[in-house]
Amino acid sequence: MESRRGGPADCYRERVTNPPVPQFTVRPETSGDFDAIHALTAAAFGQVDEAELVDALRGSGNGVEGLSFVGVLEGEVIAHAMLSRCFVGEAPGVCLAPCSVWPEHQRTGAGTAVIEALLAEAARRGEAFAVVLGHPEYYPRFGFTPASGFGITLHVDVPDEALMAMPLGGEVPEGALAFAPEFGV
């Protein structure tokens, strides 16, 4: 018996094997997003420390103006990432952190889209390099590699593979890394 394609079973099979991808937008944060960003960051990390860090970086001016992006789905902020000022020696760069996605929206591509847009905007603005202290399985997809390969050091002990750097539009300098004071490192 010959089967026909395009019947109800095929439609169902297509939906199950290829579920619809959420359609979200990525844009710079606005002041109207601050409460939603605080709530999503606390939910993503399971505590308020990182949410308070975002607020502190924004309030101190150490969050780089215009380099804090959100992912929005159906009017709701579901993802956020920001860049803060850091230095390697005297050379200014940007630090990617914190990055947050509502737990129910993780693994949908929202975090990746926000980070990619954020790093592209930083490069467009002429930022030379970015650093991140984070999961070594996640951040290499954006171009991050161990910072030690660039000769970057940190005055506290962290796993070598967790401290990463990448060029954005210039060279990655060699030297000691200094995060914004709000990080407490």
UniProtKB/TrEMBL annotation:
<feature type="domain" description="N-acetyltransferase">
    <location>
        <begin position="24"/>
        <end position="169"/>
    </location>
</feature>
<dbReference type="GO" id="GO:0016747">
    <property type="term" value="F:acyltransferase activity, transferring groups other than amino-acyl groups"/>
</dbReference>
<dbReference type="InterPro" id="IPR016181">
    <property type="entry name" value="Acyl_CoA_acyltransferase"/>
</dbReference>
<protein>
    <submittedName>
        <fullName>N-acetyltransferase</fullName>
    </submittedName>
</protein>
<keyword id="KW-0808">Transferase</keyword>
<dbReference type="Pfam" id="PF13527">
    <property type="entry name" value="Acetyltransf_9"/>
</dbReference>
<dbReference type="InterPro" id="IPR000182">
    <property type="entry name" value="GNAT_dom"/>
</dbReference>
